């Protein structure tokens, strides 16, 4: 079975519904009563998820969700005001237009998680809204000096609430950087892996959707990188990927032009 699908981008309005129907997201959405769209927002606006992309995903989710389901857009910006970025990047307008909630994960209600699989953290304070929802990670594919690649998994550092992880004299989440950032990415994903990745690789002419780790591997190739050279992807592959018989793994990605 394919682990994901990559399609050539014509426009968000045309391509997003096609892509999401190909992965049968319309069927999956009906199983869930809470759906969270998780973009990546940064003070570097060029690396932030575009509101137009999220709007197309949101429209699809609203059309195919079950009648009782709630949809939220949630993010916890690092070193910046999440709500200001929501406003500046058009998310506040989406909230008003579609009557959905915006959640700042930096101030969200949390639960304490202790997991033997954590590599560097003894515990993580994790946003309850993400734990209780079907989470769709929506990054805008980019290279990054610290993260190496902004993908569906590295962008989940937004799930670390700054109310617990910021520095004493800084709004940056300094407490997640006591060790190399790959460990923070790993451990937040041990708390919970996003349920689905939908990656805006429009700068490379594509959109991708499917299993988050496999989609990030494919996205790395679009950036001209070998995924094993990206520290957090190598670590996550070692920790999360099932070892198949004979050490063979399927890397089946359907490419549709």
Describe this structure in words.
- This protein is an alpha/beta fold and 257 residues long.
- The chain has one domain (4-256): Rossmann fold, CATH 3.40.50.
- 33% of the residues lie in helices and 21% in strands.
- The protein contains ten helices and twelve strands.
- The protein has an eight-stranded mixed sheet, with helices on both faces. The chain has a two-stranded antiparallel sheet with strand order 5-6. A two-stranded antiparallel ribbon has the order 8-9.
- Strand 10 (196-201) and strand 11 (206-210) form a beta hairpin.
- Helix 1 crosses helix 3 (51-64).
- It is globular, with a radius of gyration of 17 Å.
- The two termini are 19 Å apart.
- The relative contact order is 0.18.
- Mean pLDDT is 93; it is low at 244-250.
- The whole-number mean of residue pLDDT values reads 93
Order of helices and strands: EHHEHEHHEEEHEEEHHEEHHE
Oligomer: single chain
Q: How many strand elements?
A: 12
Q: Quick one: CATH superfamily?
A: LarA, N-terminal domain
Q: Quick one: biggest sheet?
A: 8 strands, mixed
Q: What distance separates the N and C termini? A: 19 Å
Look at the structure and give the CATH class.
Answer: Alpha Beta
Assign a percent range to the helix content. 25-40%
> What is the domain total for the residues?
1
CA-based gyration radius: 17 Å
Q: Which residues sit in consecutive blocks of at least 5 with pLDDT less than 50?
A: 244-250
> Looking across the biggest beta sheet, what order are the strands in?
4-3-2-7-10-11-1-12
* CATH fold call: Rossmann fold
